[in-house]
Specification:
Layout: E1 8-17, E2 20-24, H1 27-32, E3 42-45, H2 53-59, E4 67-72, E5 86-90, H3 91-96, E6 106-109, E7 112-120, E8 123-127, E9 137-146, H4 150-161, E10 168-171, E11 176-179, H5 185-199, E12 202-205, H6 210-238
Parallel strand pairs: 11-12
Antiparallel strand pairs: 1-2, 1-3, 1-9, 4-9, 5-8, 6-7, 7-8, 10-11
Length: 247
């Protein structure tokens, strides 16, 4: 069976640069390169940028269960190197984060991987380009199965966008996904169009009934009152008895 754009599939892969593994869904390979994360095959939607573009483009028309390889140029990999991403940073920035930079070191700095090029006096020249920018890479991959279960699809979308899972129910009749936690509504509002594109379902957040909201407010009020009473007790304990004056 061939897969096509918008199909959800489970895929395993290994990415290499200069024959060295940098990305994998195989636990044994992950251990060999020092990855401690929960590594396992991924569920993704084909052609919707849930993988590196060069790998994503290679999936369309492939057979389930067959092994494939793809060679990816920088344009569809990690991009070309950008000279403007080589920056001079004051040494104090590293000191404040308890880092001691030296040429060749790689740090996570403000959610970016940074490679140190040189250190001179109070200045550090750092490269903010992805370490694989400008490099040709290779992926070996196999599509394990096509995913038809809607719950599994929604969880795959959550894994991709949220990096965590929230409770939800699926209304198959009205083609709706209903999330149970009202507090995540701002997040859902940002991604609901993408959810609709990927899953074909509208997305909404279940709102609490007025009585439930009233009960929640009562509980909050009780907690606030208890907190205030505790503060008052502590204040009273600190008040010392007045000393008797010497006659």
């Amino acid at each position: 069976m061939q897969v096509q754009k918008n199909d959800f599939i489970e895929i395993e892969f290994t990415g290499k640069s200069n024959n060295e593994i940098f990305d994998t869904t195989h636990p044994e390979e992950a251990k060999s390169i020092g990855l401690d994360a929960d590594v396992k095959p991924m569920v993704i939607s084909v052609g919707n940028e849930m993988l590196l573009k060069g790998l994503d483009d290679a999936l369309d028309g492939k057979e389930i269960g067959e092994k494939y390889s793809v060679h990816i140029l920088p344009e569809k990999g990690f991009g070309k190197r950008n000279a403007s991403l080589i920056k001079t940073i004051p040494m104090r920035i590293f000191r404040e984060k308890n880092l001691n930079p030296a040429p060749g070191m790689v740090f996570q700095l403000d959610q970016h991987l940074v490679r140190i090029l040189s250190v001179s006096g109070g200045r550090v020249i750092a490269d903010f380009n992805n370490p694989l920018a400008g490099k040709e890479i290779d992926y070996d991959f196999k599509i394990l199965r096509k995913v038809d279960d809607n719950k599994e699809k929604i969880n795959a979308i959550q894994d991709f966008f949220f990096r965590q899972r929230f409770e939800f129910i699926i209304n198959e009749k009205d083609k709706k996904i209903i999330f149970k936690e009202e507090k995540i509504k701002p997040i859902i509002d940002v991604f609901k169009d993408k959810f609709k594109t990927l899953s074909g379902f509208d997305v909404e957040v279940e709102e609490k009934k007025q009585e439930e909201k009233t009960e929640d407010k009562k509980e909050e009020s009780k907690e606030e009152k208890k907190s205030e009473e505790k503060k008052e007790e502590k204040t009273e304990d600190k008040i010392e008895e007045p000393k008797e004056e010497n006659k």
